[in-house]
Amino acid sequence: MLLALQIILVITAVLMTVFVLLHKGKGGGLSSLFGGGVQSNLSGSTIVEKNLDRYTILMAVIWIACIVALNLLQAYGG
């Protein structure tokens, strides 16, 4: 059980990192300093961006649940 939670924790951490990096920049960061923020968003938030938000939140919830479960197992000797 402990090993399975650790594996899930690592997988969700990697997936969450990938999903965060896939998000479009909202502007105002370092990319706009070097001319990356010149493009304007005409369509706003797309379906893909909304789904990416949902997947990122889902990965974060699973990640936090694994951390809590691992802590409980370690505290109470699972």
From TrEMBL:
One protein family per Pfam: SecG
Record's subcellular location: Cell membrane
TM ranges: 6-22, 55-76
Membrane topology, as annotated: Multi-pass membrane protein
Location (main, coarse): membrane
InterPro entries on file: SecG
Keywords, alphabetical: Cell membrane, Membrane, Protein transport, Translocation, Transmembrane, Transmembrane helix, Transport
Described function: Involved in protein export. Participates in an early event of protein translocation.
Stated family: Belongs to the SecG family.
Record-given protein name: Protein-export membrane protein SecG
Record organism: Corynebacterium suedekumii
Annotated gene: secG
